[in-house]
Specification:
By secondary structure, the chain is α/β, with parallel strands linked by helices. It contains 21 helices and 17 strands.
Length: about 700
């Protein structure tokens, strides 16, 4: 669609009501739980400290020698003996509100202590050991804080794992957390996937009125597998089925069954089906089922015990439930080639529904669906937007409509115009304009000639797509400029000539750089990458090489993801393929240089105009190109008024040329008619002469 000038030599969607998505307040709740846990821990520590202080008797330990010294100096008021511990209360108290005491261990027998204290006036008493007090002290100081801490920890864990049972929710399915009684989405909200909707409509009718199907002996399909690229609307279709059928909708992701503990996934599968059976009729939707349904073959990364157990349990559950209860399993994946064959067989997933990229009509319908709540003006043409977004999926188109609405508000308009939609297409494809990146005058010239080289080569080839826009304004995705080309109609096949024209178009920018500046830059890295990809596909996949003929040398992996091609040939053949690719690119590059070299004047005039304007339309490009080709004088300082005058001159020249051509054709036709009449007269005279001679002979 476009030819980017990339300054990087290395030179890459959600439903608000999706039940699988985390609750928007989930993080907030977690933060609150953590805060509550910290507060509880702090309170526990404070309580522990208070208990400790309460149990302590504000006493400090002293040596036995110090105690004897205090007795000799008559500083002791009373002495209490309990369990070989002496509690000493001094006569002198610094704080009248709190009694200070000392304690020490008894190092002599009680009789000697009694003799030492006789006659001193010190109150001496002996108390039995307090076993209950010691026990309570231990309970209050150690056991009680531990119990409180454990209770608080369990409370916080339950808060953090709400919806799951057991410790941290291990082994419990989250099906209840993701169930919806009504999805609020119907088939009217899904566009561009008529065939997929038709396949699923039968399932909905079966859930609505199973009697007429059961009467004839038909059974409800156990499962339907939705397959397609990301963003095509697989999840939306599943929700639409549930919305049309008015049944509960269980939604989970394949990754939610996988845990680090072996057996957890299988337990969650069992729990999911138990919940579904309780709520039948219902629909169970497993998104990204390749996370648990990956083939057990080691080629696809098999050998994981947890995943295999989960898959085995899923296979067993799908075999075990009764379809007459109205339980339907829907699954979605982008990688059907890695799924286990046992999962794909009839009786488990009976139907495979392809949700592919929408065609032209589908894209128009999708744009209308997403724009039904957007205010549009009279200039909006969805057909033109759909034509310019070939290969886009539903999420891309939804994003484009939303970006257009944001642009309209940003520009102070109350309705979305066609200009906003076209700009949003560019924003999604190549990023926003990078206004803070200022190129030097020389770099602007290089970029300008590069992009005009792409456009000029495309205009000179009849099998190339027409140019819609040329710009040298840098974009946020790394492009310093690009050429937008829009096909005249939707294409599903490319001829060899079209692919060859595409190669020449990719290399036109670099050819222009070499011809004009006698040097090349790093800006053509993306062009070279794209050209190499197309050339390699022509040789290895499309059979467009004379050397290899119809031999298939590569297979496509991950059809619905990156579509990467993997070579299926020996090393020697791979080397020969590289040589063939190099030769094809060399021929294309030489053709690009030839075309640009023979139209150098048009290249210079258009590049000069692009440097001044920074962005020009395909119409402006073609006016200047036709004017130069017809030999008209194009000013170096061409402005809009001059461009209009030039357009009129070009049209006048074309009308005059057509008139002269018509006159020439009329004159030639008259000459042909007169010559034919002369031929007829001569033949008539010859016939008459021959008749006369025949009569004389008789």
């Amino acid at each position: 669609m476009d030819n980017n000038l990339d300054n990087n030599p290395g030179g890459k969607r959600p439903d608000k009501r999706d039940p699988r998505r985390p609750d928007p307040n989930h993080n907030k709740k977690n933060h609150q739980s953590i805060l509550a846990f910290l507060i509880c821990l702090l309170v526990t520590l404070v309580c522990f400290s208070l208990f400790t202080n309460m149990l302590q008797d504000n006493s400090s330990e002293i040596t036995y020698d110090k105690f004897i010294d205090m007795v000799e100096k008559d500083e002791v008021k009373s002495v209490t003996l309990q369990s070989d511990t002496l509690t000493i209360v001094p006569k002198k108290q610094l704080n009248p509100y709190q009694e200070i005491s000392y304690y020490t261990n008894l190092t002599e027998d009680e009789t000697a202590l009694t003799k030492r204290l006789e006659g001193t006036g010190i109150i001496f008493k002996s108390e039995p050991p307090d076993a209950f007090g010691e026990f309570m002290a231990m309970m209050l100081s150690v056991l009680l804080p531990s119990v409180l801490l454990f209770v608080l920890l369990m409370f916080v864990m339950r808060r953090m794992n709400k919806g799951g049972g057991g410790m941290m929710g291990v082994g419990k399915s989250r099906a209840k957390a993701y169930v919806q009684k009504e999805t609020g989405i119907t088939f009217k909200d899904v566009a561009g996937q008529d065939e997929a909707k038709e396949s699923l409509q039968e399932v909905v009718e079966f859930l609505h009125n199973p009697g007429k199907y059961v009467e004839i002996g038909a059974k409800l399909p156990k499962g339907a597998l939705l397959v397609g690229p990301p963003g095509t609307g697989k999840t939306l279709l599943a929700k639409a089925v549930a919305g049309e059928a008015h049944v509960p909708f269980f939604s989970l992701s394949g990754s939610e069954f996988v845990e680090m503990f072996v057996g957890v996934g299988a337990s969650r599968v069992r729990d999911l089906f138990e919940e579904a059976k309780k709520n039948a009729p219902c629909i169970v939707f497993i998104d990204e089922i390749d996370a648990i349904g990956k083939s057990r073959d080691s080629h696809y990364g098999g050998g994981n015990d947890e995943r295999e157990q989960t898959l085995n349990q899923l296979l067993a559950e799908m075999d075990g439930f009764d379809t007459s209860k109205g339980l339907l399993i829907l699954a979605a994946t982008n990688r059907p080639e890695v799924l286990d064959p046992a999962l794909l067989r009839p009786g488990r997933f009976d139907r495979r529904v392809i949700v592919d990229r929408p065609d032209l009509k589908g894209r128009v319908d999708i744009l209308k669906v997403h724009a039904k709540n957007v205010r549009l003006d009279e200039t909006v043409d969805f057909d033109a937007i759909a034509l310019a977004t070939s290969g886009a999926v539903g999420s891309d188109l939804a994003n484009m409509v939303n970006e257009a609405a944001i642009l309209a508000v940003k520009n102070g308009r109350r309705a979305v115009s066609q200009k906003d939609l076209l700009e949003s297409v560019e924003v999604v494809l190549v990023g926003k304009e990078k206004k803070d990146r200022i190129l030097s005058a020389q770099e602007r010239r290089i970029v300008s000639y590069h992009e005009v080289g792409h456009a000029l080569v495309s205009a000179l080839q009849k099998d190339a797509e027409p140019v819609q826009k040329i710009t040298i304004v840098p974009r946020t995705m790394g492009a310093l400029g690009y050429v937008m080309q829009v096909p005249e109609e939707e294409k599903y096949l490319n001829t060899q000539k079209e692919l060859e024209a595409m190669l020449v178009g990719y290399l036109g920018g670099r050819a222009a750089e070499e011809i004009v500046f006698d040097s090349v830059t790093t800006g053509a890295s993306n062009d070279i990458e794209q050209a190499t990809k197309v050339a390699r596909a022509m040789i290895t996949q499309y059979g467009m090489s004379k050397r290899f003929g119809l031999m298939g040398l590569a297979t496509q992996e991950n059809q619905y993801l990156n579509g990467r091609a993997v070579l299926n040939c020996g090393d020697d053949t791979a080397t020969e393929v590289d040589h063939e690719v190099m030769e094809l690119l060399r021929v294309s590059y030489e053709e690009a240089k030839r075309l640009i070299g023979t139209h150098r004047e048009a290249l210079d005039k258009i590049a000069a105009y692009l440097i001044r304007k920074e962005t020009i339309t395909g119409k402006e490009f073609m006016i200047i190109f036709r004017a130069v080709e017809k030999g008209l004088d194009v000013s170096d300082n061409l402005d809009e008024a001059g461009l209009e005058a030039l357009d009129k001159a070009v049209k006048g020249e074309e009308m005059g040329r057509n008139f002269r051509k018509q006159e020439t054709e009329n004159e030639s036709s008259e000459k042909e008619l007169s010559s034919e009449e002369n031929v007829k007269e001569e033949s008539h005279e010859e016939t008459a002469a021959s008749d006369e001679s025949t009569t004389e002979n008789h």
